[in-house]
Amino acid sequence: MADYQEAPLATRPKTLDPNEYFNVSTDQRRVEQSRAALRAELKRQYQTQLNNPHRKELIEDPALTRWVYARANPYTYFRPTFKTSLLGAMFGVVPLFALYFIFKTDRDRKEAQIKAGTLERKFSLSS
Predict the structure, then answer these.
(1) How far apart are alpha carbons 63 and 33 in whole angstroms?
(2) How far apart, in whole angstroms, are the C-alpha atoms of residue 100 and residue 106?
(3) What's 8's DSSP letter?
(4) Strand, coil or helix: what is 67?
(5) 0.90 exceeded by pTM
(6) Which residues contact 114 (CB under 8 A, 6 or more apart)?
(7) pLDDT of 2-17, one tens digit each?
(8) Quick one: pLDDT band at residue 123, thresholds 50, 70, 90?
(9) How distant, in Å, are the alpha carbons of 26, 108, 113, 116 from that of 104?
(10) Which of 89, 99, 125, 126 reaches 20 to 30 Å from 8, CA-CA?
(11) Residue 54: Cβ within 10 Å count
């Protein structure tokens, strides 16, 4: 880890910063342990509900319910940022201008060839 170099466009996550990772206070460590204990208890509770052989009802996972609701209602949870604006422009606006430029230059080239009389038409109704 001594020869690690930072990426030019990304910062190191706070959890991977050695100063934050190794120099954690006892209060912070205690908070992390309590969160881990809470996660373990929730996981144990879910596993006991899931593996109950006498279960008649569905197991409701609140995280899954929130995720499904957020997927069903995307516009209430959409936050416009620089990245989403850039992606919208790249996939919504740029292709329109690119196609316009391609078709316009092709049409102008064919018109110039027709006016000069150098265009050889492959399909003609008169012949």
Answers:
(1) 22
(2) 10
(3) S
(4) helix
(5) no
(6) none
(7) 566 777 787 777 767 7
(8) confident
(9) 68, 6, 14, 18
(10) 89
(11) 4
